[in-house]
């Protein structure tokens, strides 16, 4: 599979504090890649660098083109949907309005309607609550709304920042099933940041483990899962 | 009773004017958490532009929309040139800049048009209509109709269009909106343009009543602050309701209680009472944040 997203020796930080000390990784077109590591390892900063939320050095290419000096809006319009830490739900707006923000740039009306049908198939609860304020949704429902909204952007790549955070295990399982379905039926590539290494390795085909801003280990997800010393030293289970 | 009802209608008309300017304040407050102290002076300058166009021989009903378009453009230019370079500065810096802008616009208008009083035409006849035995001036009715239409148009724009949706999203959640491809910076500029146009309506409606001069809006902006604070500075609906309450209260108080000289004090009293009893306003939500 061709590389859809490539990070080459990316360094980034906030002001004088540098967080990433040369991260390189590849997300193949249509693939699922997990980005693991402890708190503060730089997982969220990596995602923020990709969508231009933090200044970086090195090189980031999406679909063969450098993302250097592009604004967040431009990057997103090229087909990257970023579900940020905390999900980025607009709580002042209704569920429907949040979804509309996902599709507002698209001009392919018929396809958009099909995508709405698909989204409501994945998340029937959102259809029931369309007219309600997004602030009335539970944490799990807000995560579903964030995923649904990202899907309506018709992205080629989704960046998901800890979709399992703060959710009950049963909710996490159903959300990960849907992420898998989105990847398989819509052929959307996924770069998944997770603390929950076990579930992330189950879903992904390759994985990178970050340690203080560097890639400590990377490889085939199944192999990493089978490697006890990697599991013990980096994944904590 | 008849006189009371007439005063009530006049109060509602004044309320429509205050509501328009209050709505302009709310639009900018929502977009960037900033009270734009130059809002009244921006409206005054727009009214002077309308005055110049009318004097050049254009008909009022052509000048009106042309002025709104110019005010809209002017608001965008002010945001791009004056506000954007300091967008990330502390809010106090921004407040000082809007105060400076107010002084600058006031001086500029005085320099160009002089400080004398100009009479500004009203598009409505000076007679009164007999509505079920109550004599209501066409001018009051006209002001109520124009303000109502403008407020309705803004409501429809914000609530029913995609641009309005992205403006609201950009105002409340700039980071999340950027990740959805919303051009947040331009949405702020649009907010300034819209506020400037809505404010211009209040200027053109009040000028026939007060006479046009550079300090014309300085009392009106106090009433608009009162309306916005009473309604909840974040709520467009609150601005409208607050405007009507302030308009009617001030007018009735002027007619029956304190006389015309102390009307402004009533407006200030409304600000103080609202801040003490209901700091978030009638339609504002508590400023707590769920974490």
What is the compact description of this entry?
The complex is a heterodimer of chains A (237) and B (291). With 237 residues, chain A is of the alpha/beta class. Chain A contains ten helices and ten strands.
Report on the architecture of this protein.
The complex is a heterodimer of chains A (237) and B (291). Chain A has 237 residues and is an alpha/beta fold. Chain A has a domain at 3-13 and 24-88 and 154-235: P-loop containing nucleotide triphosphate hydrolases (Rossmann fold), CATH 3.40.50.300. Chain A has 10 helices and 10 strands. In chain A, helix 7 links the parallel strand 7 and strand 8. In chain A, helix 3 (95-103) packs parallel to helix 6 (139-152) and helix 6 runs parallel beside helix 7 (169-186). The mean pLDDT of chain A is 93. Chain B is mainly alpha-helical and 291 residues long. Chain B has a single domain, classed as ABC transporter involved in vitamin B12 uptake, BtuC (Orthogonal Bundle), CATH 1.10.3470. Chain B has a two-stranded antiparallel ribbon with strand order 1-2. In chain B, helix 1 runs parallel beside helix 5 (138-160) and helix 6 (162-172) crosses helix 8. Chains A and B meet through helix 2 and helix 3 of A and helix 6 and helix 7 of B.
- Mean pLDDT across all amino acids of chain A: 93
The number of strands of chain B is 2
Shape type of chain A: globular
SSE-based structural type of chain A: alpha/beta
The largest contact between protein chains, plus residue counts on each side, is: A-B, 24 and 18 residues
Helical content of chain B stands at: over 70%
SSE map:
The complex is a heterodimer of chains A (237) and B (291).
Chain A: E1 3-14, E2 17-28, E3 32-37, H1 43-50, E4 56-62, E5 65-66, H2 72-77, E6 80-83, H3 95-103, H4 109-122, H5 124-128, H6 139-152, E7 157-161, H7 169-186, E8 189-193, H8 197-203, E9 206-211, E10 214-220, H9 221-226, H10 228-235
Parallel strand pairs in A: 3-8, 3-9, 6-7, 7-8
Antiparallel strand pairs in A: 1-2, 1-4, 4-5, 9-10
Helix pairs in contact in A: 3-6, 6-7
Chain B: H1 2-32, H2 39-55, H3 60-83, H4 91-113, E1 128-131, E2 134-137, H5 138-160, H6 162-172, H7 174-179, H8 184-210, H9 217-231, H10 236-257, H11 263-277
Antiparallel strand pairs in B: 1-2
């Amino acid at each position: 599979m061709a590389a859809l997203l490539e990070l080459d020796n990316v360094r980034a930080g906030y002001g004088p504090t540098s967080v990433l000390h040369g991260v390189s990784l590849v997300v193949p077109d249509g693939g699922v890649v997990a980005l693991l590591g402890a708190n503060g390892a730089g997982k969220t900063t990596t995602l923020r660098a990709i969508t231009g939320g933090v200044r970086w050095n090195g090189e980031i290419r999406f679909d063969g083109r450098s993302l250097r000096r592009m604004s967040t809006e431009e990057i997103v319009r090229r087909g990257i949907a970023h579900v940020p830490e905390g999900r980025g739900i607009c709580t002042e707006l209704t569920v429907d309005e949040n979804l509309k923000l996902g599709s507002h740039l698209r001009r392919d009306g018929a396809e958009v309607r099909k995508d709405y049908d698909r989204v409501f198939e994945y998340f029937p609860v959102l259809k029931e609550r369309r007219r309600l304020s997004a602030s009335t949704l539970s944490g799990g429902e807000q995560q579903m709304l964030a995923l649904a909204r990202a899907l309506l952007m018709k992205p080629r790549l989704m960046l998901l920042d800890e979709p399992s955070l703060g959710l009950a295990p049963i909710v996490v399982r159903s959300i990960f099933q849907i992420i898998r379905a989105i990847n398989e039926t819509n052929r959307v590539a996924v770069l998944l940041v997770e603390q929950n290494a076990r579930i992330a390795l189950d879903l992904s085909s390759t994985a990178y483990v970050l340690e203080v801003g560097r890639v400590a280990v990377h490889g085939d997800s199944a192999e990493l899962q089978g490697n006890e010393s990697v599991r013990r030293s980096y994944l904590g289970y | 009773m008849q006189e009371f009802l007439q005063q009530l209608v006049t109060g509602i008309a004044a309320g429509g004017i205050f509501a328009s300017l209050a709505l302009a304040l709310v639009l900018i407050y929502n977009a960037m958490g900033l009270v734009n102290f130059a809002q009244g002076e921006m409206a005054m300058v727009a009214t002077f532009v309308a005055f110049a166009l009318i004097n050049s021989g254009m008909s009022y009903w052509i000048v009106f929309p042309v002025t709104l378009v110019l005010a809209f453009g002017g608001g965008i230019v002010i945001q791009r040139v004056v506000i954007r370079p300091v967008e990330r500065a502390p809010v106090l810096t921004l407040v000082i800049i809007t105060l400076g802008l107010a002084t600058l616009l006031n001086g500029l208008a005085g320099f160009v048009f002089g400080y004398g009083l100009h009479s500004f035409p009203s598009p409505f006849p000076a007679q009164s209509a007999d509505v079920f035995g109550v004599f209501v001036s066409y001018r009051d009715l006209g002001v109520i109709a124009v303000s109502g239409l403008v407020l309705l148009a803004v409501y429809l724009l914000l609530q029913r269009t995609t641009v309005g949706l992205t403006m609201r999203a950009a105002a409340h959640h700039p980071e999340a909106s950027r990740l959805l491809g919303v051009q947040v910076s331009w949405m702020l500029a649009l907010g300034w343009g819209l506020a400037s146009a809505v404010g211009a309506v209040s200027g053109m409606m009040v000028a026939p009543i007060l006479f046009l001069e550079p300090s014309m809006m300085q009392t009106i902006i106090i009433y608009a602050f009162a309306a916005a604070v009473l309604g909840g500075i974040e709520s467009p609906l609150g601005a409208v309701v607050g405007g009507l309450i302030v308009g009617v209260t001030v007018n009735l108080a002027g007619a029956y209680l304190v006389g015309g000289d102390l009307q402004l004090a009533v407006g200030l009293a409304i600000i103080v009472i609202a801040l003490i009893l209901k700091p978030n306003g009638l339609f504002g939500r508590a400023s707590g944040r769920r974490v």
